Amino acid sequence: QVQLVASGGGSVQAGESLKLSCRASVYTGRTYCMGWFRQAPGKRREGVATISRDGTANYKNSVKGRFTISKDNAKNTLYLLMNSLKPEDTAMYYCAADLAIGDLCRDILSFAYRGQGSQVTVSS
Fold it and tell me: Residue 86's Cα: distance from chain center in Å?
């Protein structure tokens, strides 16, 4: 069982930045895929970014160039740096983890473990 605890959300103006963190209860280093998904009120969940066990990152098209996913294996912590935030980025953000099979990650919405949400609100 993997427990994930997210932090770092908040309210900002458009164009500002936020950094989310997610600490895992176990070593996830080269064993797990990690990632972030979000859900805005009245909308479906959507994947934002994933990072494979070898560090390969993938992003939702609308956040490419603005968001950066990274991890610190020594601290069992996943990060999401969000720059140039837009009002449409407003959502509850969730971190997730999944035991990796091979070098690719499956759809983040199918990941086995997820943390509590962290609210991000961007005003114009």
Answer: 17
